[in-house]
Amino acid sequence: MSIKKVMVIGAGQMGSGIAQVCAQSGFDVILNDKNENALERGMHSIEKLLARNVQKGRMTETEREETLARLTPSTKLTDAASVDVVIEAIVENMDVKAKVFQALDEITADHVILASNTSSLPITEIAAITKKPEKVVGMHFMNPVPVMKLVEIIRGLQTSDETYQAIEEMSQVLNKTSVEVNDFPGFVSNRILMPMINEAIYTVYEGVATPEDIDTVMKLGMNHPMGPLTLADFIGLDTCLSIMEVLYEGFGDSKYRPCPLLRKYVKAGWLGKKSGRGFYVYE
Ligand code: NAI
C-alpha cells in the first residue's frame, strides 16, 4: 500500500516529534489533540524546532515552509477518515487508548493502519478492541523523535505481514532504523533498559553508592552517554514505575519488582526533571 497521509493523535512530547518527522519526510500530516492548548503547544514546538534547523543550516527556508504546509492541526478525531495511517501517541493508559481505538475503528476505512506509540501496553490487547486486529501494530519511537534513529515495530499476535511491511517501509522513509519485535511486556527497549534503571535505584536504596557515583560508573566505565539515574529523571520516575509494574505483572517474575525507593519518590511527587526533583534537583 502507498502511505501518503498520516494522522498523529496526541500533540505532546512524542506526538509533536512524530508529526514533525513525518511532515519533514513528505507525508501530509494531521496533528490531532483533544485539548486545544496542547495542540497549540505542540504546533509551536514544531515551529521552533524547524526554525532552529534552518538557523543551524540543517534545512533550507523553503524546506521549512513546505514542511509546515504539510501539517494541519485538528481537534476532531473524525478527521482520521481521510488518512492512510493513524499513529496514536496519547497518555499511557489502557482505558483512554481503548476509547480512541474503538472510535478509530468506526471512523477509518478497513485498509487504514492503526499504530500505537505505546511504550509498554500490549499491542495484542489494543488490537483486540478493534474489528481489524490485523491492521493494528506498535510503532515505538524514542524520545526526542527528531534525533533518535530507532523505531521498534511491534507485531501483535494478529498483526498481518502486509501491515508490518507497510510500517517498515514508512520507517525507512522517515530515515529511521526499525527492528521487528514480538509483543511481550516491555518489548525489547524497556525490557532491558528499565531493569537496569531499577537496579541502579536499588543501588542507591541499599547505600552502595551515591546517585552521582552510580551515574559516573555507567558513563565512564560502560561508555553510556548518560547515567541510569539521570536518564530515569529525564524519562520521568512515574513512567519508569509504571513500566516496571507492566514487566512485573506481565512476567510474574520477582526480578522485575519495582524498587521501594522508586515507589517512595513517585508518592512524594519527585518525578524527575519535569517536577524539579528526582534523583537530582533541577532549577
Ligand atoms: P504527553 O503527556 O506529552 O502527551 C500526550 C498528549 O495526548 C497530550 O497533549 C494530551 O492532551 C493528548 N491526549 C490525551 N488523550 C487524548 C485523546 N483522547 N485524544 C487526543 N489527544 C489526547 O505524553 P508523551 O510523553 O508524548 O507520551 C505519549 C505516548 O508515547 C505514551 O503512550 C507514552 O508511553 C509513549 N512514549 C513516550 C516516550 C517518552 O519518552 N515520553 C517514549 C516512547 C513512547
Concise description?
This protein is an alpha/beta fold and 283 residues long. The chain has helices at 13-24, 36-55, 61-69, 94-107, 123-128, 161-173, 189-205, 211-222, 228-235, 237-251, 260-268; strands spanning 5-9, 28-32, 71-74, 85-88, 113-116, 136-141, 150-155, 177-182.
Write the layout of secondary structure elements.
Layout: E1 5-9, H1 13-24, E2 28-32, H2 36-55, H3 61-69, E3 71-74, E4 85-88, H4 94-107, E5 113-116, H5 123-128, E6 136-141, E7 150-155, H6 161-173, E8 177-182, H7 189-205, H8 211-222, H9 228-235, H10 237-251, H11 260-268
Parallel strand pairs: 1-2, 1-4, 2-3, 4-5, 5-6, 7-8
Antiparallel strand pairs: 6-7
Helix pairs in contact: 1-2, 7-9, 7-10, 10-11
Question: Could you please describe the fold and organization of this structure?
Answer:
- Keywords: NAD, Oxidoreductase.
- By secondary structure, this protein is an alpha/beta fold.
- It has 2 domains: 5-182, NAD(P)-binding Rossmann-like Domain (Rossmann fold); 190-274, N-(1-d-carboxylethyl)-l-norvaline Dehydrogenase, domain 2 (Orthogonal Bundle).
- The protein is 48% helix and 14% strand.
- It is built from 11 helices and 8 strands.
- The chain has an 8-stranded mixed β-sheet with strand order 3-2-1-4-5-6-7-8, sandwiched between helices.
- 41% of the residues are buried.
- The mean pLDDT is 97.
- The site of 1,4-dihydronicotinamide adenine dinucleotide has 24 residues, from α1 and α4.
